[in-house]
Description:
Helices cover about 15% and strands about 45% of the residues. By secondary structure, it is mostly beta strands. The mean pLDDT is about 90. The chain has helices at about 60-75, 115-130, 165-175, and strands at about 5, 10, 20-25, 30-35, 40-45, 80-85, 95-100, 105-110, 135-140, 150, 155-160, 180-185, 190-200, 205-210, 210-215, 220-235, 240-245, 250, 255, 260-265. It contains three helices and 20 strands.
Amino acid sequence: MLVALFNAVRVTAAAAERGGAFYCPSCGKPLVLKKGRIVVHHFAHKPPILCDWARGETLVHLEAKQTVHAALTARGIKAELEYSVETMPGDRRGDVIAWSPKGQMIAIELQHTSISPDEIAERAFAYARAGAAQIWIAFLPSSVWKEAKDKGDGTWRIRRYAPRQFEHWIDGLNLKAGMWMYEPASKSFWLAKMAKHEIHEEEAIWYAPGGIEHYRPAKTRLSTKYRDLILRGRFGMDDLRIVKRACRGFSSKLYRWPKAVIADFVPLTENPAAD
Length: 275
C-alpha cells in the first residue's frame, strides 16, 4: 500500500516519516511504514493479515503507481494514489486517480497480475458509472526482449507473444488502436499493437505401416493463441499527455466493454493540446 491514514488524514509512504501511527484506510488496522534505498516506500499490515487491501499487490506494481503519480503531480496535475471510488465493486481503490483542468476524474489502472474478463469489465463499468475517463495499462514482461527485432523505423517486433485475456480486453477497449504497456526495468511506457502471428509449416513426407507414403504440402496458418507485438517507444511519463475520447458500449462472446470516456496517452510531440 502506498497510502495510509495519519491523524485521520491521507498520507503517502513517500511523504511519511518513521515513528508515526499509521492506519489502513480500509480496515483501520495499524500499518508499518517501510522505507529503503532500493524498495519503493510503502505501508504493510501487521500480521495476521485479513484486509483485502493487503492482498495481491507486488512491489513492481507499487513502484509503477508511484512513478505515474509522481510524474503527474510534478506537472501540476491533481492526482491521488489508491483513491477510493464509491461505485467500484470489491476493492474500490483506483491505482492513480487524476483530475483534468475541467474537473473530470481520470482513472489510470496499471494491471500487473492476471484478472478475469468479468472482473476487469466490472471495474470498467463502475468507472463509467462514476463518470471517470479510464486508461488500462498492462505490464511488459522482460522476457519479450529475447525475441525482439528492431524494425529500423522506431518500432520493435516481438514474435509469438501470448496475450493474457485482460490484454485482449484492453486492446478491444482501445478499438485495436494499441495498448500502453509499462516496462518496470526502465520505468517507461511502450505503445503496443497486436498483429496476427503466422505459423509456417514445412512440407513433410512420412510412411505409414505397410509402406504407404503420406505427403503434407507446406502451408501457412494464423495462430489462435499467439500474436506478434509491435512496440513503439520507449516513453517516460514526462513525455506523454493524457487525451480523452468516447467509446461506445459493445460486447463479444468473451468480453464486455462499457459506454465510457476513454483516456489515452499521446506523445507530447504529437498532440500539443490536451485536457
